[in-house]
Write a structure and sequence with these properties.
mainly beta; Immunoglobulin-like; 3 domains; 6-stranded mixed sheet; 5 helices; 7% helix; globular; binds 2-acetamido-2-deoxy-beta-D-glucopyranose
Length: 560
């Protein structure tokens, strides 16, 4: 093969910089899923972790590397891991969502994920894709450019992963099970976290906080990840602007901002210039963005600090930061509209110009009958009025081995009935059930308009598509207007991502090329909405060419 094979990469942090200098093609990782007691917010409880770490280990790779991760399950839950944003070209078996591309790794079992990182560089993350385990089972993926290829921005002095998350004092599986039994919304989290730490909170002495020690006059690359379950977040650093350079492992035209908006499932790389001549301690914070006031949120702000070396270590001297309030739609829009693909000669934006499949999907909440629930009904969520029901065998296996009766491929291209999606909701807000997929020929082009509905509450939905990056060509408030809205599309340098927020009471249009055969999940990345059924999958047929078909399944693929 003529290439290095590194195992295991999880050596002391001290050796990592050395390893990253080696041009390597195969990287071996071992992920042992184990329970560990953790204390946050004065509460100690066992949580599910990879290798005992929370957040989990950082997975480093270079563009073009083959990554092998052997996951061994030592806990009493079924587990799968998703490599969020990794395109998995022809390797859907390694994508990870339970019952979509694989059966779970059962207690005591192992499975080796095997994928190659192609045409991507930047920050992504891995997380569990079953139950609500991703709350603590997650970590960063850092994809470096090919050896010798520079960043399209000045080389930073140092790089830091900043993982935003949520913490519940109680057992998170109990939280969602309680909600499903009652039919109500689950309890919101007790704190947000930055690299696992909430920072000082009322009623609880600090158990540590995120602290970034910096030299003055330098540039730091912050790789920011929203690994929270249910909250879109604002993030900022006191008295420092941030230069955004990349989102979802795709470069963007750099722009400066004091606050970023980041949805669960999204990643954002920013440059932080330590230009405060006088030094000091500057607060870093993350807080919720949700502009639907009737939906409960965790309103705790996670805090940490950027600490200039040589400054006295006293909380009292920290410069405070004030983030926008939770309903600051304008602030959020300003940020979202500043995002444009870099679209340079080296990194062109290949926005599909001609469209083969034009789709309109409503996304939103609703109810379903539930005789044992509190009011005889439970909260549900759907796409085109179908609340997706997970099968008991994986869809990709059913597709590959032609197993009938697992799914149908008749997912509707438009809502079954047209109505005023963002107006007064109809009296019947019951959603239908189904395991229905939308079939796409290999290499066809898709335009998908995601339209929020006003059932129960109009709400922002960060929709994540597996297997592809897409271009976000347009968005707006109210109902999508197929006559006039497309005239305003950006078909030149639209931002390229894998997760996009559908605005509360509005719509978002995305375009992508179905050049990856397999079965690809699409769902709201607010975990509560996924649980309630806001999910579906695309089935992309094999092409006729030699490298246009799904590879055969690996021999250790778990069975159901
Ligand atoms: C976690 O702590 C509890 C007591 O709080 C203890 O009973 C349990 O054995 C500990 N578990 C582990 C894995 O250390
Ligand atoms: C990983 O998958 C590739 C095919 O994509 C295969 O050639 C290779 O042998 C696999 N590696 C292992 C260790 O199974
Ligand atoms: C959810 O919150 C309610 C009200 O605070 C509490 O009684 C209940 O125990 C919580 N559920 C879980 C699983 O923590
Ligand atoms: C059940 O009905 C009561 C009274 O109408 C209402 O206050 C409550 O929110 C309902 N609960 C659910 C889960 O819909
Ligand atoms: C941040 O950018 C704004 C607008 O460009 C500017 O007014 C402000 O001075 C900058 N702040 C810092 C700390 O550089
Ligand atoms: C935050 O939420 C808690 C519980 O939901 C509530 O008691 C508290 O008043 C809220 N704080 C603010 C500032 O809204
Ligand atoms: C945000 O909510 C507060 C009160 O909760 C309200 O006073 C304010 O007008 C709202 N702002 C916007 C932009 O809606
Ligand atoms: C859909 O299935 C769920 C169980 O998964 C059931 O509770 C509900 O009643 C069904 N809804 C409809 C509309 O049939
Ligand atoms: C849809 O409902 C909204 C809100 O009530 C209203 O402003 C709008 O005019 C309605 N649109 C149509 C086409 O009826
Ligand atoms: C959704 O499906 C249910 C069950 O078939 C039906 O009663 C309802 O009218 C449909 N609603 C919409 C908006 O299509
Ligand atoms: C997909 O179609 C485009 C446009 O026709 C073509 O340029 C490209 O080579 C095709 N890709 C593959 C993998 O066949
Ligand atoms: C794990 O998954 C298998 C296969 O779907 C299923 O039969 C089993 O009940 C699950 N086990 C647990 C503990 O959920």
């Amino acid at each position: 093969m003529g290439c290095f094979s590194l195992r295991p990469l999880l050596l002391l942090a001290f050796f990592l910089p050395l390893l990253l200098l080696v041009e390597c093609r195969v990287r071996h990782y071992k992920f042992n899923v184990v329970r560990r007691n953790y204390t946050r917010l004065c509460h100690s409880k066992p949580i599910v972790t990879v290798n005992g770490l929370f957040p989990g280990p950082i997975l480093y790779a270079r563009e073009d590397d083959n990554v092998l991760v052997k996951v061994t399950n030592h806990v009493n839950y079924n587990v799968t891991i998703h490599w969020h944003g990794v395109r998995q070209l022809r390797t859907g078996w390694s994508d990870g969502p339970a019952y979509i591309t694989q059966c779970p790794i059962r207690p005591g079992q192992s499975y080796t994920y095997n994928f190659t990182v192609t045409g991507q560089r930047g920050t992504l993350f891995w997380h569990a894709h079953i139950l609500w385990l991703r709350v603590t089972l997650h970590g960063a993926i850092v994809i470096l450019p090919k050896l010798g290829v520079p960043y399209p921005f000045p080389k930073p002095h140092d790089e830091v992963v900043v993982l935003l998350g949520e913490w519940w004092n109680s057992d998170v599986e109990a939280v969602i099970n309680e909600a499903l039994a009652s039919g109500r919304a689950p309890n919101v989290s007790d704190a947000h976290t930055i690299n696992g730490y909430p920072g000082p909170m009322p009623g609880c002495p600090s158990k540590g906080e995120f602290k970034l020690e910096v030299d003055p006059g330098k540039t730091y690359l912050l790789r920011i990840i929203n690994a929270a379950l249910n909250e879109e977040l604002f993030f900022g650093v006191s008295q420092h602007n941030l230069t955004v350079v990349e989102v979802d492992a795709a470069y963007v035209k750099p722009f400066s901002t004091n606050t970023i908006v980041i949805s669960p499932g999204q990643t954002t790389n920013v440059l932080l210039h330590t230009n405060q001549g006088g030094g000091g301690r500057f607060m870093v914070a993350a807080s919720t963005f949700l502009d639907t006031m009737i939906v409960a949120v965790d309103n705790a702000t996670a805090t940490g600090v950027v600490h200039y070396k040589g400054t006295t270590d006293s909380v009292a001297t920290t410069f405070q930061v004030s983030l926008p309030s939770r309903n600051s739609t304008n602030e959020a829009n300003k940020f979202i509209e500043s995002l444009h693909s870099l679209n340079s000669k080296e990194y062109p934006a290949a926005v599909p110009q001609r469209i083969d499949h034009s789709l309109l999907f409503t996304v939103g909440l609703g109810i379903q009958p539930c005789p044992t629930c509190m009011n005889g009904s439970r909260a549900a969520a759907s796409i085109n009025n179908i609340s997706f029901v997970l099968p008991t065998t994986a869809l990709l296996q059913a597709h590959y081995f032609n197993v009938s009766g697992v799914f149908t491929d008749d997912f509707p291209a438009k809502p079954p009935v047209a109505f005023n999606y963002t107006g007064t909701p109809p009296t019947n807000i019951v959603a239908a059930n189904g395991t229905r997929l939308y079939r796409l020929p290999f290499n066809s082009t898709v335009e998908l308009v995601l339209q929020d509905t006003s059932f129960i509450a109009p709400e922002s939905h960060p929709v994540h598509l597996h297997g592809f990056n897409f271009f976000a060509v347009g968005h707006g408030i109210g109902n999508f207007d197929p006559k006039n809205d497309p005239k305003k599309y950006n078909l030149v340098d639209a931002v390229e991502r894998n997760t996009i927020g559908v605005p509360s009471g509005g719509w978002t249009a995305i375009r992508f090329r179905a050049d990856n055969p397999g079965v690809w999940f699409m769902h709201c990345h607010l975990e509560v909405h996924t649980t309630w059924g806001l999910k579906m999958a695309f089935i992309v047929d094999d092409g006729k060419g030699p490298n246009q078909s799904l590879l055969p399944p690996p021999s250790d693929l778990p069975t159901c």
